[in-house]
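Regression test attached.
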Amino acid sequence: MPVPEVKESFAGQVSRVTLGSTKDSGGTRTSTVTVGGARNVVYGGSIEQAGEKPVIAMDVLDSRPDDWPETLAEHYQDVMDSPGDWAKKCVEEFGADLVCVKFDGIHPDKADKDAAHAVKVTEEVLKAVGVPLILWDSGNDEKDNQVMPKVSEAAKGENVLIGTVKEDNYKALTALALADGHHLITHAPLDINIAKQVNILVSDMGFPLEKIVTFQATGALGYGIEYAYSIQERQRLAALGGDKMMAMPAICDVGYESWRVKEAKLEDAPGWGAVEDRGPMWEATTAICLLQAGVDIIRMRHPRAVATVKNFINQIWQ
Amino acid sequence: MALTGLEIFKLLPKTNCKKCGMPTCLAFAMQLAQKRAQLKDCPDVSEEAKQQLAAAAAPPIRLVQFGSGDNRVQTGQETVMFRHEEKFYNQTVLAVTVSDKLTGQDLKDRIESINSLQFERIGLHISVNAIAVINDSGSADAFASAAAAVKDTSSLAIILVSDSPDAVAAAVAKTGDSSPLIGQAKPDTAEAMAKIAKENNCPLTASAESVEALANLTEKIKAQGIEDIVLNLDGLNLRDQLYNLSKIRALALKKTFRLLGYPTMAFVPDGDADQQAAYATSLICKHSSIVVVNMVEPYAFLPILTARMNIFSDPQKPIQVEPKVYPIGEPDDNAPLMFTTNFSLTYYTVESDVEASRVPSYILVVDTEGTSVLTSYSGDKLNEKTVADAMVKFDAENLVKHRKLIIPGYVAVMSGKLEEATGWEILVGPRESSMIPKYLQEIWK
């Protein structure tokens, strides 16, 4: 009996986004990164429909973190006080496709550092590495509104990916990103309706849809990953169905989420295997799961987890 | 091809007797058409109708079972491509290899290390399900004795993997009463393998290098009277396996293509434990019903099994934790007391952050029917009364000497009413769970 055809024809596709500006286009990046472009679900149809290869953005914190478990921190002890060197290490030693500068240190409950500090860190990292950057705020709306516009300005012309804008706090950063020529991350709390709403709000301000990357919030493996997983699958299906407001590439924050769970950090856990192996494995497995649902940029932290995920990506997206 | 509800209705007795549990024959017919009911629930259906309906009423992916006792596994019978469309029903069977080149103590050690791959997570037991005995030696005797050793040393389900019908026959003779899954039947051994499967009443793995070749093979095996078949794509790299597994699932569900309407089995490609865990996770998410790995490192299994648990959870039903007081660390009667909701995701996030603070504490879990803090507050499932009731029910008064209750920052507005309802001093905690360590270490002290 002949095997029937199961081809599906989709009306839409995930939009393609190119981050980073090289000298030719007015920036100082030595390379660019292009993501998105999928025309089918993950493993649907043929490899030609899979779009661009997913990429890994490694986290660089603006200030030395004091809560990283030893398994993770030991790889960065020598560079934690120097974001530029830290970024260099991620790119040159660990093969990061992008660097994500996370401004934890400006948060009022953490180091409460000012805009001048954030600008200095941005400049340092821009100088240290040639890959495109992601600039990610602290999560405190008030402080972010003071600091992130300055950060955006400091990276003007570099075509960074900056964020995040939310349903109730999007105007300041959206306007700045537009003026400074950046791509923008729209952020929703594991709620696909809010995700769409933020995209609509931002595009109403004249921000081009094809310069947006969505962040649906991430749950770690064992801690709500199934919600993120299904939202990513629904986002991909919506994009393929022709919904322009959901057709953006997706970013997820695997590094932060997986390194705060017990299974990644607990040292004394009989039967669970050594924590040096288990931590990176937890981070890698979280990333691998989300790749099955359809994500384009993965924020990660541990070099061993990055190596595992890169190997996987290279086997699938050749 | 599948029949519509009305086509099925015409074949039913039309007595509306309700014996099937549905109000009318038409309603039952509709359920049958959607594969949500089984024909055997109708006691009065005619033999003729039965035969006509059997083909159409069968689930698009057959349920196959193997193994015995508590470790009998069932696999297949999935109904959707994506978990959010309904849910995934039968958790991927995770199997670990045992090579028949191992003998004596080495063999025993390997089997024991597989037996010990068992974990507890959020109150549930998760573990490996099966051992795949691999005929690496090429010898029928070695295969049979390795299989016998597995049967004697483990209660896990057994999968026999050999290209040689003689070796499989020899191994089944030693393990037949524990209902192993046997194989691999290939185009040139299909008849011989099917004969062994039939004689021993075991499900059979069909193995071929393409989707088309697999369909031809299952047609051949079905002709031998074997219905319980498992599909295996042989010799493909990981990428081609994953694309073809999605294709097989789509053919079974969207085209009701019976020749591929069976559960699938994939062997993860070679690699270190980290790589194998990554491959296994992708195969679990994207449609391999059985996944066979070649490693025994516990650190790799805990995340794989957790991924399986998460992906196969029911998206319609939030996982809840039992409402009660959870001591974190070893709290005494001066320890902080805080409450959160019984939505498992909320609770485990809070628990993880309280643990991280290293401040021994009590978490009072209020029954909010599995909803998060903000959702339950706006739905009035979390209010001063439900919190006060939970405090009485779980005896908060005798737990701690102080009279201070920490509440989630997002429901700061309920402080006043809660203070009145309980007489306790209300302390507003952080909005984000991640700030709990700082709160407990610096503000509580």
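Expected vs. actual: identical. Chain B touches chain A through 66 residues (CB under 8 Å).
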